[in-house]
Amino acid sequence: MSSEQIPIGRFSQITRLTQKALRIYDDRRILIPAVKDPMTGYRYYSSSQIERALKIKYLIEMGFSLTEINKLLMAMETTNHELIKQMFSEKLSDVKQEISRLKKIEEILLENTSIEVLFLSTSEPVIKKVSKMRVISKREKGPYGKTINRLIGEIMGQIFKPDNQRERVTIVGPPMYICHDKGYNDVDADIEIAVPITGRINVEKDFEVKYLPSGKVVSTIHTGSYSNLGEAYTRLFEYARKNGLKIGGLTREIYLTNPKEKPENELLTEIQLPID
């Protein structure tokens, strides 16, 4: 080992990054050791890598994922200031949402109220039949909030194209999110947004015009932040369990109010769980 080579243990002490984290960064090719012993696999770093390691540490503390950090480091190396500005702006938006969520938690804790009051923002579940409806939809993978907002905007762009307006294409219901995932995925969720319409419509590639099937659902309406929709799902699944209902099919979240026009505490979201 030369004097320039820093063993992983010492490098860990210098950078305040755990050895486990350094091994992960090596596997993800974010911070590759200067030398790796071919016999033992032991990692050695150079002093010139300390700055990169500290940048990674600070970016992690700011809440960036490893994938995002890799993009940012590449942008720094290529002086792609536009990408850096864009990614920092998106992170700022995420941070503001998290601050808002934490402030709500603080308010609840300061009130010293019981946990039952949290569920008062969700209406009593009901069973109803939904009719077959014609929609324009688009399906993509990505983080929930950003992807849903963008897809709604893109669908509205299709509806209000001049040629479609000449054909009197009309929105006849609120936008909805159709969940295709079997579990929660905050980074790469399988998201479909659909908007009910009438009229003869021409759409670009990646958009689809189709009919959503009719059927029975158990439904509730939630008042408040989208981040608290878990309360509504809890009530729906508990209602289904108590009443022996079998849930099957794709869940729908229907956005009854526009977040650009209503404060967060007045947002209305209907959740529909299909039942057999």
In short:
The chain is of the alpha+beta class and 276 residues long.
Question: Any overview of this molecule?
Answer:
It is built from 8 helices and 12 strands. The longest helix has 31 residues, at 81-111. The chain is of the alpha+beta class and 276 residues long. A hairpin with a 6-residue loop joins strand 2 and strand 3 (43-45). The strands form 2 sheets. Strands 4, 5, 6, 7, 8, 9, 10, 11 and 12 form a 9-stranded antiparallel beta sheet that branches. A 3-stranded antiparallel beta sheet has the order 1-3-2. It folds into 3 domains: 6-81, Multidrug-efflux Transporter Regulator, Chain: A, Domain 2; 83-120; 122-274, Multidrug-efflux Transporter 1 Regulator Bmrr, Chain A (Alpha-Beta Barrel). It is elongated. Helix 4 (66-77) runs antiparallel to helix 5 (81-111).
SSE topology:
Elements: E1 6-7, H1 8-15, H2 19-27, E2 35-36, E3 43-45, H3 50-61, H4 66-77, H5 81-111, E4 126-130, E5 133-142, H6 144-159, H7 162-166, E6 170-171, E7 176-179, E8 189-198, E9 207-212, E10 215-223, H8 229-242, E11 252-255, E12 268-274
Antiparallel strand pairs: 1-3, 2-3, 4-10, 5-8, 5-9, 6-8, 7-8, 7-11, 10-12, 11-12
Helix pairs in contact: 4-5
What attributes does this structure have?
single chain, nine-stranded antiparallel sheet, Multidrug-efflux Transporter Regulator, Chain: A, Domain 2, Multidrug-efflux Transporter 1 Regulator Bmrr, Chain A, three-stranded antiparallel sheet, 276 residues, 39% helix, alpha+beta, 23% strand, 3 domains
